[in-house]
Amino acid sequence: MENIKIEHIRNKKDLITLAEEYAKYYQNSVLKEKWTASTALKMFEYFYNLKQDLIFVAYDKEKPIGIIMTNLKPWWDGMHLEDGELFVLPEYRKRGIAKELLKILFQYTMEFYNATTLEAHTYKDKNDFPYCWYKKIGFETIEDWKIISGNIPQIIKNLK
């Protein structure tokens, strides 16, 4: 990681580069999500507008190559990091960048917000990645929790 620096986002324009790469990657993943550069940028801007200081970017000189962004939510046992995204460009993976992004986010949020927990959802591909990576670094699966998703117009019909 000799030329790689991780810091708060330098420029909002860096979100454009990262959103384009994010969309490219997830268009070809095991997920059935249909990201475009435009929809990914809207999601990235959501975090930017929400809590800019909770966005950290990995830079290779001037090029943004990875990002972690999240939100804070007060909970019964302290502040929880919620609803986050962690993404590193595929050609920069396996260099410890994701670990460093997490470490910097955790150190910052513990110091300035007394954060205690990160809750997130993930997926796994045919090699169990990235789920196995999260398990390896200490995340646990909460068996009694379920992620739910619903089509709002259909649910409204069902509520009648």
CATH-assigned fold name: Aminopeptidase
CATH architecture designation: 3-Layer(aba) Sandwich
* Count, helices: 5
Largest sheet: 5 strands, mixed
How much helicity do the residues have? 25-40%
Q: Distance between the terminal alpha carbons, to the nearest Å?
A: 57 Å
The side-by-side strand order for the widest beta sheet comes to: 1-2-3-4-5
CATH homologous superfamily heading: Gcn5-related N-acetyltransferase (GNAT)
Percent of residues in β-strands = 15-25%
- Contiguous low-pLDDT stretches (5 residues minimum) are none
Gyration radius (Cα, Å) is 17 Å
CATH top level class name: Alpha Beta
* Shape call: globular
Number of strands: 5
Q: Give the domain tally.
A: 1
What string, H for helix and E for strand, traces the elements in order? EHHEEEHEHH
Report mean pLDDT, rounded to a whole number.
88
Q: Would you tell me the structural class of the helices and strands?
A: alpha+beta
Note the main attributes of this structure.
5 helices; 5 strands; 37% helix; 160 residues; five-stranded mixed sheet; Aminopeptidase; alpha+beta
Written description of the protein model:
By secondary structure, the chain is α+β, with helices and mostly antiparallel strands. It has a single domain (4-159), classed as Aminopeptidase (3-Layer(aba) Sandwich). It contains five helices and five strands; from the N terminus they run βααβββαβαα. It has helices at 14-27, 37-50, 97-113, 131-136, 152-159, and strands spanning 4-8, 55-60, 63-75, 78-88, 115-118. A five-stranded mixed sheet has the order 1-2-3-4-5, sandwiched between helices. α3 (97-113) links the parallel β4 (78-88) and β5 (115-118). The chain is globular and about 60 Å long. The termini are far apart. The model has no long low-confidence stretch (mean pLDDT 88).
